[in-house]
Structures are given as structure tokens and as C-alpha cells.
Amino acid sequence: MSALEFDFSEEFALKMDREDPLSTFRDRFHFPKVNGNPAIYFCGNSLGLQPKSVKSYLDRELKNWADLAVDGHFHGEDAWYHVRKKSKPALSEIFGAHEHELVAMNNLSVNLHLLMVSFYRPTPERYKIIIEKGAFPSDQYMLESQVKFHGLNPDDVIVELSPRTGEYTLRTEDILAEIRNQGDQLTLVNMAGLQYYTGQVFDMKAITAAAHEVGALAGFDLAHAAGNVPLYLHDWNVDFATWCSYKYLNSGPGNISGVYVHERFAERPDLPRFAGWWGHDEGQRFQMEKGFLPMYGADGWQLANSNVLALAAHQASLDIFQEAGIQNLRQKSEQLTGYLEFLIKKISGESGILEIITPENQSERGCQLSLLIHRGGKAVFDEWYQQGVLGDWRNPNVIRLAPTPLYNSFMDVFRFGKILEQSLKKFA
Ligand SMILES: *Cc1c(COP(=O)(O)O)cnc(C)c1O
């Protein structure tokens, strides 16, 4: 839908909600309140809302634990021993990968390190890593500490991509040019799939192809892409990826992460990795013998036995995703975010107070719009918050708003537009 078809009236928002085939999913979530009223929740990029069904999924495992205790590991269809398999069909749709290429485990920053152990193998000739400048701090700390762990100097190794002067986001052609420029010194491109600050989606397919052309690998941090934009990791030939489940995947604060490892690495017991008993061949695990034999595929990167309660909450949300369908979600998402963009541009117009820095091109963004605040600073955000808008403020000067297609409505966006209109008068 082009911006021209949007309309400024309340009737338009009401009509869009009436015609929205996903509109009933909103009722499946708990909404927080601000000043006693249900919030306009645009913060799914930071912490997704709680599905009402989470409680029953958790209760079921609590009951299994109470009734079966240790027997729960092998009892019936809920057997904890195999619990990791339950999430695979949904993860497969969300990430566009084979089930054996995916496994839910650990937390994101932990997984970033584990993947680096296998996929960052610097040699004196080939040791450089490309990342976008201003990457999420955990990713920066991870990279620097990994580089130092190998006895190298981060300044010699890490190549940061910056936007052109006067621009806020990266051009694909510039990313690809830098990959070619680093050429046979490059061993890894390790970027976000969707940049948390600007909301830009990178062309993972093209970046991966360029990395492979110079003999390097490509891995992505999908924290902000997971459950937000359709992904085709296998077909894009991406080497590895990780994400978290508490943002768009609505699985609860700090909940479980996951990893993707392309099937070309499925049978590579020679790949260095930090091993644990849960990555060891499932059939022989309880023989408790010496000699690590990794499981086929991503499962071979597991260390510890599955966090059953975390996976239960995760599953509640994944089941909702499967029901809604990632393509349906994307279709609504483009409309919802397009509508937000239309209202912001129309209302803030030439005020000079704020500017959207997220790309206009749909294929280069997910649901989030990042607004650079030129005047008023955090007071603008505080004012919106007082009116019930839950977005987030990111230093130095960005407000991120993420209308999510699962639980946000066109009326949410319309109501935000009214609040924006009022607030701009204060900062004029
Ligand atoms: C949210 C986020 C993280 C958070 O890492 P945790 O290990 O889950 O605390 C890391 N990297 C990026 C890019 C993120 O967006």
C-alpha cells in the first residue's frame, strides 16, 4: 500500500481495524497501563507483551514437575528430554530454515560467544571482522573480547561500517564494497540483521553472497529481526545467526535465545566448539562416557539440558505466531508502519522537531520507526509517555516506536497521531 492511500480520519483507522484479519490476536495479550489507562504499546522491540496463554503453558510444566518430578524427563509426550523439539516447527517458519538448523538455548549474548568460538578462526593472513558502527553494546563487547581472547588488537581487526556523511543508514552497495575491499583479509561479517537504533534491515542475502565470494563467513544478530520480518536464512546461505525471544517473539523478560547454523556445518565434528553433554549424541548421552560426539546440526551446539520453564513460555508465543502466519503478519506490519509514517510526516511536517531516520523503503525496515529528535530532547518522549504512549528513548536522541502487527491496531496509531499533534504545539 502506498502512503497516498492512507487517510487522516478516524473512520479510516476504524475501517482498517474492521477489515484486519489479525485483529482478534490483540485480545490474546495483556496490555500494561500508564496512568490508569491501557497503554498505546509501541515497545515490542524491547519487550513483547505477555500472551494470556503463557500461564497455562507454565502451569502444565509446573504440574508435570509436581506430579512426576524426575520421571518428567522421560514421561509421555511432554517428556522434558525431547522438549527442545517442540519449538522447531515454529522456529523453522520464523527463520526460514530447516528444523535441524535451529535450536532454542541460552541467552543471546552467550550464544554470540559460542558461535564465535566455532566461526571466528583468525589466521595471520585472514582475521578481519566487519560490523556496523553503533552496533548494540553487547555485540561490541562480545567482539572486542573475542578478538582479545585470540591475542589480537580490536583496532586492527574490527572494521566498522558508517553511513555516508549526512545519511543515517547504510547503503547496501557500500557494505558490499567494503567486504570486497577487505577481500582476503576478511574472515567474518557479523552484523545485525535489523539495526536496533535505526530500524534498518540489511540485505542479508547480498551480504552473505559477498562475504562468501571473498572467502569469509556471514553471521547475523537477529534480535530485532526475529518475529518482525520474514527471514530465509537457509536460502540466503547465511552461515550462522542468533536472536532473543523476549522482543517481537513475546516470550517473556530475559527468556531463551536460539541459534541457527547452516546445514553445511551439520556434520562437522572437527569444527571447534565449547561442548557440553546436551550437544552430545542423544542416543548415547546417558552412557556417560568419554569422547564428545556432536549431534547433527544446530543441536550439536547445545551445552546444558533444556530450560523447561523458559521453553514453555516461549512455546505459548510460538504457537500464536504459527497460527497468525509470518506472511500475514508482515502484510499487516507494512500497512501499520506505513500508516504511522504517514501520520508522523503529515503531523510533524515542517515543524523541524523530529525526523524519521528509518528507511522509507519497506524492504529495508520492519515495524519500527526511529525518530531523531531535533528539538525538545527526552522531554518529547516524557510528554508522550504521560499521554500513555509506551515507546522507548535511546541515547543520544532517538525515540523508537514499534507498532507490532500481532497486538497493535490502526486505532493505536491513530490515537498516537492525536497525541503527537497536541505535543508538538508544546515544542514548537
Ligand atoms: C536486545 C539485544 C541484545 C540483548 O542481549 P541479551 O543477551 O539477550 O541480554 C543483544 N544484541 C542486540 C543486537 C539486541 O538487540
From TrEMBL:
Chain segments annotated as coiled-coil in the UniProt record: none
Enzyme Commission number(s) of this protein: 3.7.1.3
Keywords annotated in UniProt: Hydrolase, Pyridine nucleotide biosynthesis, Pyridoxal phosphate
Keyword Metal-binding: no
Highest taxon, organism lineage: Bacteria
GO MF annotations, alphabetized: kynureninase activity; pyridoxal phosphate binding
Cofactor: pyridoxal 5'-phosphate
Reaction it catalyzes: L-kynurenine + H2O = anthranilate + L-alanine + H(+); 3-hydroxy-L-kynurenine + H2O = 3-hydroxyanthranilate + L-alanine + H(+)
InterPro entries for this protein: Kynureninase (IPR010111), PyrdxlP-dep_Trfase (IPR015424), PyrdxlP-dep_Trfase_major (IPR015421), PyrdxlP-dep_Trfase_small (IPR015422)
Primary enzyme class: hydrolase
A single Gene Ontology CC term: cytoplasm
Pathway(s) where this gene product acts: Amino-acid degradation; L-kynurenine degradation; L-alanine and anthranilate from L-kynurenine: step 1/1; Cofactor biosynthesis; NAD(+) biosynthesis; quinolinate from L-kynurenine: step 2/3
NCBIfam families for this protein: kynureninase
Stated name of the protein: Kynureninase
